[in-house]
Amino acid sequence: MQTSMETIYEDFEPLCKWRKDQTSDALEVHLPGFKRQQLKVQINTSGMLVIAGERRTDEDKLKRISRFRREFPVSEDCQPSQIHAKFSNGILYLVMPKQIIPTVSSVPSATENVKASTATSSLMNLNKRICLEIMTLAISLAIVGAYVNNYCHCSPSD
């Protein structure tokens, strides 16, 4: 006579540790007793990272299944195609790289303002001197031309 085994599901919440920085988010999920084949990691249609798993732990005449399911929001600047996972010694490691967006400072510092102001001032002074020299040369040429036209009567050579 064969007795059927009753299935008992034991839900649990694994220990999870986050590490977030500017370049990536990393998650450690502690899953002692699990094997890689018993885990499922995916991003659902809502953009949530879903980690689930179950493993069988038969005891006596009972069929026990230890299981979990966790959902985590994925950072908006995360690159989903670059997410990678590794399972080692009962710990699932997930790394979610972020898109690196260069930041441009819109407000220059006081030092930058002084440097820019000094450079602009020097350039303006140089431009003023060049303009004055050109104007002086043009006026001098006009005066010489007028003098030659009025006082020099050059006769054409025969």
TrEMBL record:
Pfam families: HSP20 (PF00011). CDD domains: ACD_sHsps-like. Its main location: membrane. InterPro entries: A-crystallin/Hsp20_dom, HSP20-like_chaperone. Keywords: Cell membrane, Membrane, Plant defense, Transmembrane, Transmembrane helix. The chain crosses the membrane at residues 130-148. It is a single-pass membrane protein. It is found in: Cell membrane. One of its GO terms (cellular component) is plasma membrane. GO terms for biological process: cellular response to heat; defense response. Residues 6-117 form the SHSP domain. Belongs to the small heat shock protein (HSP20) family. This is SHSP domain-containing protein. It comes from Hibiscus trionum (Flower of an hour).
